[in-house]
Design brief:
Helices cover 62% and strands 8% of the residues. By secondary structure, the protein is an alpha+beta fold. β3 and β4 form a beta hairpin.
Length: 618
């Protein structure tokens, strides 16, 4: 009765089992097909379920009260969404009308040397990709941003390409833009009544959209002044116009229509245009700082002044991950070993450069992934440009003096090694927070609709706990257009296999890597003509970028463990029960119960091969 009251309908088989158990109990006999061990395990799980459901009743009552006291909340959100969509379509039509054949010819001339230089790739790939990166730099900010994403995917692209494109995380020459005059910047800030004392004559960092100068206020406060590049708006709008035309053209081709490139191009235009108004970025920073206020390992700069083309921020001290990764890549050289050994060696090189032990590098990797998961599942507001050039690492004084070669001796292949790593992490926490991750450049930030977040939550839970057919069904249901899919069952079977291949690494290697599953899902979408939701696409592409960075610090970083910090909770369990997802629900219930007892669910399951109650054979 209680389960039905909160919207949960147990399957008939469970009800029959309960009735059967009552019949046995009434006669005083024990269940013949259950051993004492199984009865004890099922009893523990049942008791934990009763406790959690009792707490969930209170949560349900609170939700009902909140909805009753705010009856017009959904209508208001819907009205705002419609108004926003109308304004966006007006801007899209304006940009599409500005598409220029001259700009298209200009881009063709800029990239023509790439085709001419292609034979050089056979002789010297490093030199060839260096030339390619130089041409991309000349093409404009849209192409630079694509190159910055590609540079993070060492598991997809060759090291020589990643090394060449990775330099764009630190510096973009932007020959299409005129130089910024620091004296004019100081004058503008003083006119805005900001007491700027001095500004460096040379930029500290040069990006595709802006340059950053260090300066000092009259009260001694050190600041970073972000200046929009002259001419970037004009060039950006010209490239966005071409991108919108490309989206329209892709919509007319059957093989490309299902990728949703038209809508993706429209949303990309909206998101990129955010970065041309620093008042928007200041607003995003305030929101991110509020969202992450209680976390000690993640921080955002504080905005002190903002105008359309100038942004004054608190100066942050640390090492850009892009520079660390590039230095490690240079030290690695041409490594011909197998992928796993090569990634482990690369992570060892990074630890040596930073001077940190293995447990700290693992925490940095896991916390960076967990920060993105928090943005998705808790805050519903994600940073849309999390490449390594936008992440700084600030180490505490004691962390840099550690010796990584000593920390690595224990390894992670044995239970003793894992216990040693855990003990080391506890000691590190006792000494204080060993690092801070400072996230920069919040101009591109994407709010997520609540229904999309719930779909992503269910998708993640289904993959984590091995309900692959349901995960495939969720992704299929999120498609905006499935009318051209000739074989839905084959599509879902292919997705389920891709998710299974991703998840089985937990049992073999102890971690989940989502990039292979994401790329296979994109291939299946194109092959079976299934429409792809653009919000989901943006979120997954962001995941690819942040996972690529995290895996350089720890090749075995576990996306599942990072996600469960924010999706393994009572509201999520309630939704899974309401959806009658019994497989996922019982896994969630058991992990929550084990966490309550102080045990590590996945360590027990993977390292000790513990048989869980529902895995017992009758």
């Amino acid at each position: 009765m209680l389960l039905r009251r909160i919207g949960i309908r147990p399957p008939l088989s469970i009800l029959q089992s309960v009735q059967s158990g009552r019949a046995f109990s009434s006669t005083g006999r024990s269940l013949p097909h259950l051993t004492r061990r199984r009865v004890a395990a099922l009893t523990l799980t049942g008791l934990s379920g009763v406790a959690l459901i009792n707490a969930e009743v209170h949560k349900w009552l609170w939700d009902e009260f909140r909805e009753a006291t705010h009856p017009n909340r959904a209508e208001e959100r819907e009205a705002l969404a419609k108004e926003h969509e109308r304004e966006r379509q007006q801007e899209v039509e304006r940009l599409r009308g500005e598409a220029s054949i001259w700009r298209l010819l200009q881009l063709a001339v800029i990239m023509l040397p790439v085709a001419i230089y292609f034979p050089v790739w056979i002789v010297d790939p490093t030199l060839f990709w260096t030339w390619v990166s130089a041409r991309i730099d000349r093409a404009g900010p849209c192409f630079v941003k694509l190159a910055q994403w590609a540079a993070t995917r060492r598991d997809l692209f060759p090291d020589t390409l990643c090394a060449a494109l990775g330099r764009m995380h630190e510096s973009v020459s932007a020959p299409w833009s005129t130089a910024i005059e620091p004296a004019e910047v100081c004058s503008s800030l003083r006119n805005a009544e900001l007491d700027i004392q001095s500004l460096d004559s040379r930029p500290y960092a040069s990006g595709s959209m802006a340059e950053v100068y260090f300066g000092k206020l009259k009260d001694g406060t050190e600041v970073a002044v972000k200046c929009l590049r002259p001419g970037v708006k004009r060039l950006l709008e010209a490239d966005l116009a071409l991108l919108l035309c490309f989206g329209n053209w892709a919509e007319s081709l059957e093989p490309l229509r299902m990728l949703g490139l038209k809508k993706a191009a429209e949303e990309f235009c909206e998101h990129v245009q955010m970065q041309t108004d620093f008042r928007t970025e200041a607003s995003h920073l305030h929101r991110f700082r509020e969202n992450f206020e209680e976390l000690k390992s993640i921080r955002f700069p504080s905005p002190l002044y903002a105008s359309q083309d100038l942004l004054v921020l608190s100066r942050e001290v640390g090492r850009e991950l892009s520079r660390v990764f590039r230095e490690a890549m240079t030290s690695d050289g041409q490594d011909e070993r197998q992928d796993v050994d090569r990634f482990e060696s690369h992570a060892d090189t990074i630890r040596s450069i930073l001077g940190i032990p293995q447990d700290v590098s693992r925490r940095i990797a896991s916390d960076s992934l967990a920060a993105y998961m928090r943005m998705i599942f808790k805050d519903q507001f994600i940073h849309g440009d999390l490449h390594p050039g936008n992440v700084m690492l600030k180490l505490a004084g004691g962390s840099s003096s550690s010796h990584p070669e000593q920390a690595d001796d224990t390894g992670s292949g044995s239970l003793v090694g894992k216990a040693s790593d855990r003990l080391s992490s506890v000691v590190t926490r006792a000494r204080g927070q060993p690092f801070e991750l400072i996230i920069l450049d919040a101009g591109l930030a994407i709010p997520l609709a609540r229904e999309k977040v719930e779909a992503l939550r269910s998708l993640a839970l289904a993959i984590i706990y091995g309900d692959f057919n349901r995960a495939a069904q969720i992704l299929y249901d999120q498609s905006p257009d499935t009318s051209n899919c000739q074989d839905p069952q084959a599509f879902k079977s292919g997705l389920a296999k891709a998710f299974c291949d991703c998840r089985k690494q937990v049992y073999e290697d102890g971690f989940v890597q989502v990039s292979d599953a994401v790329l296979e899902a994109l291939r299946l979408v194109r092959y079976y003509n299934v429409g792809l939701d653009t919000t989901l696409t943006w979120t997954l592409l962001g995941m690819l970028s942040i996972e690529g960075s995290a895996r350089q610090l720890d090749p075995e970083v576990d996306c599942a463990r990072a996600a469960t910090r924010y999706i393994l909770n009572l509201p999520s369990l309630r939704k899974e029960l309401q959806s009658q997802s019994w497989h996922t629900s019982r896994h969630m219930l058991t992990e929550m119960f084990m966490n309550w007892l102080g045990f590590d669910y996945w360590e027990l399951r993977n390292s000790w091969s513990v048989t869980l109650p529902w895995q017992m054979k009758s």
